[in-house]
Amino acid sequence: MQEDRFVQIPNMLAVLAHEGDYSYIDRIANSQSKPLVLHYLREALRDFNSLKRNPPQEMNREAIELLQEINHDYLERELDRIMVIDDARKLREVVSYLCAKALARASGFIEQSRRARSEPKEAGES
Predict the structure, then answer these.
(1) Rounded to whole angstroms, how far apart are CA atoms 40 and 14?
(2) What is the pTM of this model?
């Protein structure tokens, strides 16, 4: 993983939005200060940890794979990188990037769900 990129946080946010609930992404995107960004990231991490312990059976395959791929060491490093940002403009840039990346990633879950619904059912299935 390149040190200048954020990957794990957007992936975590995308997994949390797997059912189309973008509330964490929206809260983080609308945060006007670093303490608020970190507060909402903490809330997201609590739900992410719960989801990781017990993913719902109806969760789509791509979201489950992404959930399992998230590396907690890199996730911590990305949080540390946010913590040291002292420039408000740089913080807005990073937060916008995180949220845009999460939304882009989550859009794949929508596409996969559509494909799964449109696939013909096998004989004997109802």
Answers:
(1) 14
(2) 0.84
